[in-house]
Design brief:
The protein is mainly alpha-helical and 143 residues long. It is built from 8 helices and 3 strands. A 3-stranded parallel sheet has the order 1-2-3.
């Protein structure tokens, strides 16, 4: 069994940032919502918000999308090329992927790659609300 991080390992870049940019290009409402939530980053830096709280505020833009599944599907059609070629050659059926990115975003591409075990942040795709903590740092180890 091999365990991999997704962003900047299997995927060249940060899939969450890329998905946010993708949605901002497609939906004016996402631009507005992300702009309104951006001060949360300063709250995180100042220690007033946790990483989970900060990302939850960012993901509130999901409430403005009419069909998140369609957007995720279109995102992967445009961004699947960013899956590293070395991973496609090296992958094994029992690989585990663990990521701070939302599960709803990574699940479709992991299924396509044949990755059966995905551990990621559980975020409601319609509201942006977390079920648990952001899967980062010590939380990755716990899971």
């Amino acid at each position: 069994m091999n365990v991999y991080d997704f962003d900047n390992t299997i995927y060249s870049g940060d899939s969450t940032k890329d998905f946010c940019r993708f949605c901002m290009r497609r939906h004016l409402s996402a631009v507005w919502r992300i702009a309104v939530s951006s001060p949360a980053i300063f709250g995180y830096i100042a220690g007033k918000l946790t990483k989970t709280e900060t990302k939850q505020r960012l993901y509130s833009f999901l409430r403005t999308l009419s069909d998140v599944d369609r957007d995720v599907s279109e995102f992967w059609k445009q961004n699947e090329y960013k899956i590293s070629p070395w991973y496609r050659k090296k992958k094994t059926p029992d690989d585990v992927v663990i990521s701070a990115s939302p599960e709803f975003l990574l699940k479709p591409v992991c299924e396509k790659l044949g990755i059966k075990t995905l551990i990621a942040s559980r975020v409601d795709k319609n509201t942006g609300i977390y079920d648990g903590l952001n899967c980062h740092g010590e939380e990755k180890l716990k899971r």
